[in-house]
Specification:
The structure is a single chain. With about 475 residues, the protein is mainly beta. Among the domains are: about 160 residues, no CATH class; about 90 residues, Thrombin, subunit H (Beta Barrel), CATH 2.40.10. It is about 5% helix and about 35% strand. The chain has 4 helices and 30 strands. The radius of gyration is 22 Å and the shape is globular. Keywords: Repeat, WD repeat. One of its GO terms (cellular component) is nucleolus. This is Glutamate-rich WD repeat-containing protein 1.
């Protein structure tokens, strides 16, 4: 297992089914000021998007769940009119490394409407994300974040979060959406029509920033605006897309025909997309990840069961290519804090950890088979080099700490020190498994908030969850 030399002690594992809920907040960076400003005029109000708070009663209807509110620092659920099967958290100017509740979160999401003409790029602001209410006399009674309201919690729970949305018309469903890390008001969408489009959503972000985070404000009508750039050079539709964290505005997109295009920013604006695609996969390119440290290096995952690492100077073949799984490789995540580590997830429910310093067939650092259905999303934490979140089609989202090892003696001492009996975890659970979140159906994508340590957002066919596990 990869080790984290800065980690001290062991983290408590939550047993499967310890689903719970609460939320945390947004943060800072980029060139979009989200601390306020004048809102654009002429925006007529429309029906407010659906939003609700998930609590014990909401989870109790599923007999498979054993909901424990103490398992979460926060949990909220929300939904738009149509499912959003891809989204991204937008970096904002509210501050880095925030921990005090309530929080505010910005994001972009793409809908999957019933008709091609009914789709939108949703620009969202989710405000008043509050701390999970603790039972009186609970273990965490005195463990409150600075700035949280214990009076409000003890009075029966904080007010519900507020979802504020601005919609931009998008023809066709959105397969994937990504916001540029250096310029978060720029978002790219991979459409089911086979087109990749780049959008400037700064007007929508400015308008949302001017609204009070706790005000129940109606959504504006769908706006029709032209994208900054449209690329129709892919052979078919696709899902793979990633902005470079090293070179601003550099984008890579991959399609279901196995082709990859790299977009280079032009001086003065716009993009130049090379005519010759990167070729090396024999089947659909499912995911792409740029290196966090090398400007011209990216990795790809494919239904040909291989992972490839590319040098942008060599489009005719990958620099490295290995058989990675026994099934289609669906997702990749390149560790931003430990750049030699790559995680991959496959159709057979397995995920693996790779050390790129010794990248070859069967040379993975770790192999996990916990999930019973295809892995649909996985991502390394932005704040802990050994923490990984994984979502699968078995309707479970799991949190892992790969620096942990089993220590039976320490676990016995910990259990003996507890004031009340603790649930026994099944003996076959991996020592690295920290937490299992349930309650969503048809999970598709997850992201850690890049500016709020421990805060996760996940999307599924029945909406979004925003939560923070109490043992992270």
């Amino acid at each position: 297992m990869p080790r984290n030399p800065q980690k001290k002690g062991k983290k408590k594992r939550a047993a499967p089914g310890d689903g719970g809920a609460s939320s945390s907040g947004a943060a800072a960076a980029g060139d979009v000021d989200m601390e306020g400003g004048a809102a654009p005029s002429g925006a007529a109000p429309a029906e407010r998007p659906k939003v609700w708070r998930a609590g014990v009663d909401d989870m109790a209807g599923d007999e498979e769940l054993q909901f424990d509110p103490t398992a979460y620092d926060c949990l909220h659920a929300l939904a738009l009119e149509w499912p959003c099967l891809s989204f991204d958290v937008v970096r904002d100017s509210l501050g880095e490394q925030r921990s005090a509740f309530p929080h505010t979160l910005y994001g972009v999401a793409g809908t999957q409407a019933g008709s091609a003409g009914g789709n939108s790029l949703a620009v969202m602001k989710l405000g008043n994300l509050t701390r999970m209410r603790r039972p009186r006399g609970g273990d965490d009674e005195d463990d409150e974040d600075e700035g949280s309201s214990s009076d409000e919690e003890e009075a029966g729970g904080a007010a519900a979060p507020v979802l504020q949305v601005r919609m931009v018309a998008h023809h066709g469903g959105v397969n994937r959406v990504r916001a540029m890390p250096q310029q978060p008001h720029i978002a790219a969408t991979w459409g089911e029509t086979g087109h990749v489009q780049v959008w400037d959503v700064s007007p929508q972000l400015r308008e949302l920033a001017a609204l009070p985070a706790t005000a129940a404000t109606a959504a504006s009508p769908v706006v029709r605006q032209a994208p900054l750039h449209v690329f129709s050079g892919h052979a078919t539709e696709g899902f793979a897309m990633d902005w470079s964290p090293v070179t601003p505005a550099r984008l890579a997109t991959g399609d279901c025909a196995g082709q990859i295009h790299v977009w280079e920013p032009r001086e003065g604006g716009g993009w130049a997309v090379g005519g010759a695609p990167f070729r090396g996969h024999s089947s659909s390119v499912e995911d792409l990840q740029w290196s966090p440290g090398e400007a011209g290096v990216f990795a790809s995952a494919s239904c040909d069961k291989r992972i490839a690492v590319w040098d942008t100077r060599q489009p005719d073949r990958p620099a490295l290519s290995v058989p990675a799984h026994a099934a289609d490789v669906n997702v990749l995540s390149w560790n931003r804090l430990a750049s030699c580590m790559l995680a991959s997830g496959a159709d057979d429910g397995t995920f693996r950890i790779w050390d790129l310093r010794a990248f070859q067939e069967d040379a993975f650092v770790a192999h996990f088979k916990y999930h019973g259905a295809p892995i649909t999303s996985l991502e390394w934490s932005a704040h802990d080099s050994s923490a990984l979140a994984v979502a699968a089609a078995d309707n479970q989202l799991t949190l892992w700490d790969l620096s942990l090892e089993a220590d039976a003696e320490e676990e016995r001492h910990w259990a003996a020190a507890q004031a009340q009996p603790q649930a026994e975890a099944p003996p076959d659970l991996p020592a690295q498994l920290l937490f299992v979140h349930q309650g969503q159906h048809d999970l598709k994508e997850l992201h850690w908030h890049p500016q709020v340590p421990g805060l996760l957002v996940s999307t599924a066919a029945d909406g979004f969850n925003v939560f923070k596990a109490s043992n992270l």
